[in-house]
Each structure stands twice: as C-alpha cells, then as structure tokens.
Design goal:
- The chain is an all-alpha fold and about 150 residues long.
- It has one domain.
- It is about 70% helix and about 0% strand.
- It is elongated and about 60 Å long.
C-alpha cells in the first residue's frame, strides 16, 4: 500500500465520506439559496459548507482537503464575502441609506422574492464557510506543529 492510502481514517470512513460530502455541500448551498423563504440563510449554510470540507479533512487528512480548498482560495473567499456584503450595503446609499433594498421584490414565498437578502446570504456564506474551515485548518496545523515539538 502506498503512503497516501495510509493517511486519514479507515477505508469504510473514506468511502462513506466520498459518498456523503457532495450531498452535504449541496445541502449547504440549498440552505444558503433558500434561507430567505425557510429556515437557514448565509450563516447556517456557510457552517454546513465548511463542515463538508472539515469532513474531508477528518477522513482523508489535511493534504487532500487543502487540495480541494487551498489556503489561498480560503483567503479569497473570506475577503470576497466581506467585500460583496459591504458592496451590497454601500449600494443602498445610492437610494439614500445603508442596506437599502435596491432590487425589486417579487411575490411572497417565491425564490426571487426577497430583494437583496439572497445576495447577502451568499456573501455571508462565503465569509462564514471559508472562515470556519480556515480556523479548523489553523487549529490542525498548530496541533501538528505542537506534536512535532514533543
């Protein structure tokens, strides 16, 4: 067996993770996109999206997870989420005040019925999802460095 197969958890955990991680990611995206008409939103969806990458890291090891979402991509998504959220807030100033809804509202309980809220949810999910995964990666790397010193 190669060294790559030895990293991570058992074969059963890896197979189950491979089967479920896409579904978890898809569910997180669903929560983000439908958060304005049901329970959920940007924060909850971002946490679920981050947990799909945490699941990869736990099952396969940090190298595989960091290939899927490298540190530079995490930094980009955290920054992009913050800038998109700030941009949405500042676009409201064109109408007179912060966070003014500049997108027309549709019919209640329809997917495109909430104005700027879905855009805010997407921005928040980018920031929360990438940020939580980055925090997890830092904690794993700190633990790894700490174990190396002992």
């Amino acid at each position: 067996m190669s060294k790559e197969h030895d990293k991570g958890m058992t074969l059963i955990v890896k197979v189950i993770t491979r089967l479920t991680v896409g579904l978890i990611l898809l569910y997180g995206i669903y929560i983000v996109l439908h958060g304005h008409i049901s329970h959920g939103g940007g924060f909850a969806g971002g946490v679920i999206i981050a947990l799909s990458f945490v699941n990869l890291m736990l099952a396969y090891g940090r190298d595989v997870a960091l290939k899927k979402l490298p540190k530079s991509a995490m930094s980009f998504f955290v920054s992009a989420g913050a800038l998109i959220f700030l941009g949405i807030a500042l676009l409201g100033f064109s109408g007179g005040y912060f966070f003014l809804n500049f997108i027309s509202k549709g019919e209640p309980f329809r997917l495109f019925s909430a104005g700027i809220i879905p855009l805010c949810n997407i921005a928040i999910s980018l920031k929360v999802g990438a940020g939580l995964f980055a925090i997890f990666v830092v904690l794993v790397l700190l633990k790894f460095e700490w174990e190396k010193k002992e």
